[in-house]
């Protein structure tokens, strides 16, 4: 079979969620609705935090950056899928595929690192409340976000470089609705041992290290809260972590579910459907989780809505 380097491909084919033409209008409408809700919901969170001086704190600063990352995460994959459905096409160019991979891992890793930074913020607020204003100064918070961005950029470039070195057979069909690096690695006709090493290091950066930081932070938080004698103070401390914990479980739980299902299931299409949870549904639900459980966010949102109305 004739081999070609990725750069010699003019396009790849994204097989999408289903080949059933009757389902395409439903899939288009559903994903368009979820994407609009994601963008609108996260933009409202950013506007609410930016317009209310009471929300100019480290916790909400990190939340606004998380919302921005969620918008970018969804925008990387969903619009291209909608365009392909509308145009009755499955193609994506080489440049488009590489760009999609780069931005997908950039915003995905940034999401993961910001969740770890937010866990550290809660650790300092609960375990060291008197030193909180000194430790979490605005310049330090900005540095956390900047470092998270550059680490995410490094992670995304590692994935892009790995994919650009792969060799593929002709007519490469990607059993997904976006260009995913592991799917492309599985399609490669060349030796993938080097790419496996790259993906291991990239996965350590974007997955293992943030999860370890979150687990350590909440171990310290729970240990500190359990030493508090007042039940009301315990509840108040736990309530400040509730929304963040729910988002953490949703983000990592769905991501872990994708990789577990791909290891157990032999159907690429089923893996694709499961991956919708963490690529589309999770960014859509995050604004609802933070706004419905947070009185300050709800108040700021109602102010914005009342001004518009």
UniProtKB/TrEMBL annotation:
Gene3D superfamilies: Rhodopsin 7-helix transmembrane proteins. Residues 41-290 form the G-protein coupled receptors family 1 profile domain. Keywords: G-protein coupled receptor, Membrane, Receptor, Transducer, Transmembrane, Transmembrane helix. The keyword Metal-binding does not apply. Its main location: membrane. GO terms for molecular function: G protein-coupled receptor activity; olfactory receptor activity. It is found in: Membrane. The chain crosses the membrane at residues 26-47, 59-78, 98-120, 132-154, 197-219, 240-260, 272-292. It is a multi-pass membrane protein. One of its GO terms (cellular component) is membrane. The keyword Phosphoprotein does not apply. InterPro entries: GPCR_Rhodpsn (IPR000276), GPCR_Rhodpsn_7TM (IPR017452), Olfact_rcpt (IPR000725). It holds the Pfam family 7tm_4. Putative odorant or sperm cell receptor. This is Olfactory receptor 7E178-like. It comes from Odocoileus virginianus (White-tailed deer). The lineage of its organism: Eukaryota, Metazoa, Chordata, Craniata, Vertebrata.
């Amino acid at each position: 079979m004739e081999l070609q380097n990725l750069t010699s491909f003019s396009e790849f084919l994204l097989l999408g969620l289903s080949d059933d033409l009757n389902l395409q209008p439903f899939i288009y409408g559903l994903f368009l609705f979820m994407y609009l809700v994601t963008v609108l919901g996260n933009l409202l969170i950013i506007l609410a935090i930016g317009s209310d001086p009471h929300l100019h704190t480290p916790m909400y600063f990190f939340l606004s950056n998380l919302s921005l990352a969620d918008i970018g995460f969804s925008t990387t994959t969903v619009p291209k899928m909608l365009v392909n459905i509308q145009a009755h096409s499955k193609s994506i160019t080489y440049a488009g595929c590489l760009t999609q991979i780069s931005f997908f891992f950039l915003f995905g890793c940034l999401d993961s690192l910001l969740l770890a930074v937010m866990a550290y913020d809660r650790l300092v607020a609960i375990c060291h409340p008197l030193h909180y204003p000194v430790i979490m100064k605005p310049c330090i918070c900005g540095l956390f976000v900047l470092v998270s961005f550059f680490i995410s950029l490094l992670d995304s470039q590692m994935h892009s470089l790995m994919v650009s070195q792969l060799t593929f057979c002709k007519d490469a069909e990607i059993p997904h609705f976006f260009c995913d690096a592991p799917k492309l690695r599985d399609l490669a006709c060349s030796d993938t041992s080097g790419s496996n090493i790259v993906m291991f290091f990239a996965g350590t950066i974007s997955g293992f290290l943030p999860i370890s930081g979150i687990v350590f932070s909440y171990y310290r938080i729970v240990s500190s809260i359990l030493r508090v004698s007042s039940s009301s103070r315990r509840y108040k401390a736990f309530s400040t972590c509730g929304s963040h914990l729910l988002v953490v479980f949703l983000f990592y739980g769905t991501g872990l579910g994708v990789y577990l299902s791909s290891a157990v299931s032999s159907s690429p299409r089923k893996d694709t459907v499961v991956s919708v949870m963490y690529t589309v549904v999770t960014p859509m639900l995050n604004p609802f989780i933070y706004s419905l459980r947070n009185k300050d966010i709800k108040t700021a949102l109602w102010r914005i809505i009342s001004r518009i109305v």
